[in-house]
Amino acid sequence: MYSSSGFQGNFDAFSDQEAQRSPIGVFDSGVGGLTVLRQIYQQLPNESIIYFGDTAHLPYGIRSQEEILQYVREILNWMLQQRVKMVIMACNTSSALALEIVRREFDFPILGVILPGAKAAVQQGQRIGVIATPATAKSNAYRQAIMEIQPDVQVWQVSCPEFVPLIEQNRIHDPYTTKVARAYLEPLLEQEIDTLVYGCTHYPHLAPVLRSLLPSHVNLVDPAVHVVTACNQELDLLNLKSNHLPMPTRFAVSGSPQQFALSGLQWLGYTPLVEHVYMSDATVS
């Protein structure tokens, strides 16, 4: 777990008030992390946010651990330059493959989505299904986290490689998306799951489709809700919670700002102003 003494070193030049007013960094491969952002708006309305979407490298779920680590380190170094007080890794693939490594390398708290999601899942049921990207599913991160918390539950994981591209293309209501979702859910339904975990922050965008295909008794677990709850607790612990009005959310991407802005309108209800960041030298255009 993160040490508050190490964190304080990053803010020696800050007053307590300046540290509290510093932004929280949130990043994902694309629009998936907007599900986390919306939860921050609801649970932590006084916090300022910097959101980064690594859309040039999307989707993360098909990448190797070496690639993910390279991208995450570049993003965190950029976040460090923005003087964030905390980072939420709003990406299950990054949380599975990079979180523990980069926590040892950076001097600010970094929260991942998997442990909060796993804790919520075991409180919901005993027969747990996890839908995830290929990299997250292969890592077994959710199974391991769930079994460590509650060894007597049963866990089944399904790799869903087509979901993220379909969501990024705003094809939620495309009949093909429903067909794909039905195929992914079939092996989990055969196991009579009572709980389904969104093992990717993109997947809550598919809630209407998934809900239509699942029995009504199956609980849906959105780790985005629970990682922001954990963020709230961590801010309290470190005396970093803001009591001031937030700055407007700052959005940056490594790919097309225009494409992200269009997607942002769909998921946020407003068109965000989006910067383009070249991660190789961390310059903004």
Automatic annotation (TrEMBL):
Substrate binds at residues 28-29, 60-61, 92-93, 201-202. It is an enzyme of class 5 (isomerase). InterPro entries: Asp/Glu/hydantoin_racemase, Asp/Glu_race, Asp/Glu_racemase_AS_1, Asp/Glu_racemase_AS_2, Glu_race. GO terms for molecular function: glutamate racemase activity. Its EC number is 5.1.1.3. Keywords: Cell shape, Cell wall biogenesis/degradation, Isomerase, Peptidoglycan synthesis. It catalyses: L-glutamate = D-glutamate. The keyword Cell wall biogenesis/degradation applies. The keyword Nucleotidyltransferase does not apply. The active site is at 91 (proton donor/acceptor), 200 (proton donor/acceptor). Pathway: Cell wall biogenesis; peptidoglycan biosynthesis. It comes from the Bacteria. NCBIfam families: glut_race. Provides the (R)-glutamate required for cell wall biosynthesis. Belongs to the aspartate/glutamate racemases family. This is Glutamate racemase. It comes from Okeanomitos corallinicola TIOX110.
